[in-house]
Amino acid sequence: MQRQQGAATVLILLLVGLAVVASVLIGLRQISTAQDKAVALHAQSQAQMKAWRGAELLYRYFQQIAVTEGATWDAIEADLLNAISTTNASEGDILNGDPAAFIRAVATPDPAIDEHYVTVDVVATSGAGGPAQATSTLRLVYLLASVGGTPGGAPALPAVINFNRNLELRGNIDVIAPEDEPYVINVRGDLTTRGNSISGIDTINADGSIEIGSGSRFNKLNANGDIKLTGSVSGEQNLSALGDICLTGGASANGEVKANGSVTGSGGVQFGNITALGESDNLLHTLLCSPINVDYQGDKYAVDLMGNSSAQSVKAGASVKLNSGTIGSLQAEGDLVTTNWGGNVQGSIGGTFHNGGNPANDARINIQPGLDIGVEPLDPIIIETGAFNAYQYESEANYIFRYLNNQLRVEVKNVSGIPDGLYYLGDNTSVNGPKRDRLCVQGNCNGDSYPFCVGFSDWNGCFSYNRQQERLDINGRGMAPGVVMIEGNLKIGNGTYFNTFIITGNVETAGQHKNYAPNYAGYDGEIDNVTYAPRGICANAYVEHHPQQFCKADGSFDAEASNGIGNYTYMVGSEVSGNYNGGNIDFGASTENFGNVLAGNEFNSAGSSTIYGFISALAQGDETFNRMGGSTTIDVEGLPPTFDPFGGGTGPGNGNGGNGSTGGAVLDRVVLLWSRYL
């Protein structure tokens, strides 16, 4: 019995020993697997960083042959076509070694426009020959173009507001500008107001119709449709419309009033000099004025002054009707109908005088059959349009946010003190200064890392990602200065920022938000003892790492860097495979914006917004409605010398689609349009 008990004890000990050995072996296996995964992840990250270094080398190569050496497309096209390959040879086509680059395609979609696309694959390897070897292939599409043929063109639009679609103004719009510098609003569509006032604007141009009420002040209104003024709109306004012009409710226009259609006034309207032909050319735009009546002869009225409305002078290509007002000087090719009680009119007509006035005005009217007033119809106004695609400016960005493999990654380029490459966002609590949302070489952020986010404290982060809405949310004190590109949407809240944000989707601001364009902030925020910004781009910044295209080694600031996009705070929208994505900007309450704003589609503002610069909305995407509500102030007075609201150089702007070149013009722009991993 004792022998049996001893044998059982030995068996139990053996089983326990085997279990311990198995547990140890399993643990060792798990450790080995984790180590293999970590090594593989590290190798893959290193390969990706190499691939992006290759992309930067390619950009510099194209920049060298095109911009620096002044090559034309005709001079380099044959070499690029001959280098096209379908496989990865032992040596790259234009970049040898590791990484290597292979040209896959060369295309010129429109022979009449000097825009050419080169597709390149960059192949990079890490840990070659080892157990953790990793390869990364990055496909890139570069645009080589002359400035005249580059999408985006030159942005010198002499207007504080440029909208390519209907604009509704619901709040008070106040433009602050030097007295000797008139500013313009351009709208390719209708402009309407709802209980608001406009001040500080010299001219409003609309491709459609214009309707303005309340206490607005301006010098000129030009429309290809109708113009309607109501309420207390008054002053030395000059009006020009291809359609009809109608004023009611105490409005007045004491300047030059010209219409291809009719001019009508009711309720005591005061006009300056009226010229109207009576034949409206408003065939395509919104009709704001009631159809004009006809006189006793069945002829159209070119001018109808109802109530006690008056005009200093009238030139009419058709008939004229006057009720109880006054016309100082009249020339009309048609009839004159008066029901005048107390006023008077004098001048010449080509038709019949129907004199119902008291007293009669027979002696003051000269009838000249066949009278020709010698006035030609007005020509339509032409408002230049524009186009914007965020991917065309990818190569100009210092930081590019992408959501890759369920992680938010940041590509860094041309930033002092930070090697170019692909970084993780992570936390490192062992460093001095900001500890959250740092740029980390490794995913766990145990290695090298660099400050990027400036939270409300060193222990607060700035960034969160909403996967469902594909939106990056930023909320903190600020972040590193420079040009930031984000694939997706952006919601940016509290804080003060010093960035150009290039967004492929939409932008929404919230809270107490301020953003200074790099060119507005300048080197250190101060020029000639005048402070324009609380911080600078190169000095006095949140972090010591600055964008090198703006901050030169000699201590100077280059306001023309990155093709003038340093004048912009937001540039929004993108085109992929012929479909336009996003492009909408929505400014929330209490937004202060120091720089130009460019929406590829539409712009909306609410609450109290102040914009030190110009606004453009290019209507490339889905139609909703441009609206400016609340109180919006556009201040273009006392701007810093480094900031050019007209855009400067070759930044985005009219995008009129080319200069008719066929490849003989000097290539002076290189843009990385598109990239993805294969």
Question: What features would you describe in this structure?
Answer:
By secondary structure, the chain is mainly beta. Helix content is 12%, strand content 35%. The chain contains three helices and 55 strands. A hairpin with a 2-residue loop joins strand 27 and strand 28 (407-412).
Notable features of this structure?
elongated; 17-stranded mixed beta sheet; 12% helix; 678 residues; 35% strand; single chain; mainly beta; 21-stranded mixed beta sheet
Write the layout of secondary structure elements.
Elements: H1 2-68, H2 73-82, E1 100-107, E2 115-126, E3 134-145, E4 161-163, E5 167-169, E6 172-176, E7 184-187, E8 191-193, E9 198-199, E10 203-206, E11 210-212, E12 220-223, E13 227-229, E14 238-241, E15 245-247, E16 252-259, E17 263-265, E18 270-276, E19 301-305, E20 310-316, E21 319-322, E22 327-332, E23 336-338, E24 345-349, E25 353-355, E26 365-367, E27 399-404, E28 407-412, E29 421-426, E30 438-440, E31 449-450, E32 453-454, E33 463-466, E34 471-474, E35 478-479, E36 482-486, E37 489-492, E38 495-497, E39 499-503, E40 507-509, E41 513-516, H3 518-521, E42 526-527, E43 530-531, E44 568-572, E45 574-576, E46 579-581, E47 585-587, E48 591-594, E49 596-599, E50 603-605, E51 608-611, E52 615-617, E53 626-628, E54 631-635, E55 669-677
Question: Biggest sheet: strands, sense, closure?
Answer: 21 strands, mixed
Helix content: 10-25%
- The tally of structural domains comes to 3
Q: Specify the overall morphology.
A: elongated
Poorly predicted runs = 147-158, 648-662
| Gyration radius over CA | 34 Å
Q: pLDDT average, as an integer?
A: 82
Specify the number of helices. 3
- The beta-strand count equals 55
Give the termini separation: 72 Å
Strand content: 35-45%
The structure class reads mainly beta
